[in-house]
Design brief:
The structure holds 2 protein chains of 2 kinds. Chain A contains no helices and 11 strands. By secondary structure, chain A is mainly β. In chain A, strand 7 and strand 8 form a beta hairpin. In chain A, 36% of the residues are buried. Helices cover 0% and strands 50% of the residues of chain B. The chains are: A mainly beta, B mainly beta.
């Protein structure tokens, strides 16, 4: 069964360092989402792509976060510099198009020390 | 989505009883209403969804109802089981098709 792949599964980094997360959506899925989930809260949408275009990044802290999906397939989310408050689970999800079922990856657990 | 309210925030039921979770939305352009379940330590997964041209949808023990006039939709779980214990998220995708989540409702099923 096709799944959304994310790597790494776990990442520990020191504050002020750069960190990157990778997501490979299910083949053929044009819509890709990046979420941040802090323990005890719901997933917070950071950025939404339709193919290679950003549909929404209104909640992305653009001074330190960047996201790209250059060929409209896999995607990278970067944080530079990382801050203690960035510690969270980073989830990637994909869907054939918007307004259809979104499938989530297992996430990357980031700890900033 | 961003303007979806969920209530209650926590719900505890006895195994075998029914559970109902209600959500209200404000965007008249919303036309897709998915429900996601997230078990502790796991990723969110879609359990049922409904589109605005349908009033009710059922899948075994789970059903969702939509009242467009009142702008609310509800999740109904019958014959609850301990494995139904999880956080449930209701959301909508409005005109901008953003998939956003609220705080969720924590359902506890007591054995």
């Amino acid at each position: 069964e096709a799944e959304v792949a994310q790597s790494p599964r776990y990442k520990i980094t020191e504050k002020s360092q750069a960190v990157a997360f990778w997501c490979d959506p299910i083949s053929g899925h044009a819509t890709l989402y990046w979420y941040r989930q802090i323990l005890g809260q719901g997933p917070e949408l950071l950025v939404q792509f339709q193919d290679e275009s950003v549909v929404d990044d209104s909640q992305l802290p653009k001074d330190r976060f960047s996201a790209e999906r250059l060929k409209g397939v896999d995607s990278t989310l970067k944080i530079q510099p990382a801050e203690l408050g960035d510690s969270a689970m980073y989830l990637c999800a994909s869907a054939t198009v918007a307004n259809t079922e979104a499938f989530f990856g297992q996430g990357t657990r980031l700890t900033v020390v | 989505g961003e303007n979806v309210e969920q209530h209650p925030s926590t719900l505890s039921v006895q195994e075998g009883d029914s559970a109902v979770i209600k959500c209200t939305y404000s965007d008249s352009a919303s036309n897709y209403f998915p429900w996601y379940k997230q078990e502790l330590g796991k990723r969110p997964q879609l359990i049922i969804d409904i589109r605005s041209n349908v009033g009710e949808k059922k899948d075994q023990r789970i059903a969702v109802t939509l009242n467009k006039t009142a702008k609310h939709f509800s999740l109904h779980i019958t014959e609850t089981q301990p494995e139904d214990s999880a956080v449930y998220f209701c959301t909508d995708t409005g005109a901008n098709s953003k998939l956003t989540f609220g705080k969720g409702i924590t359902l506890s099923v007591r054995p």
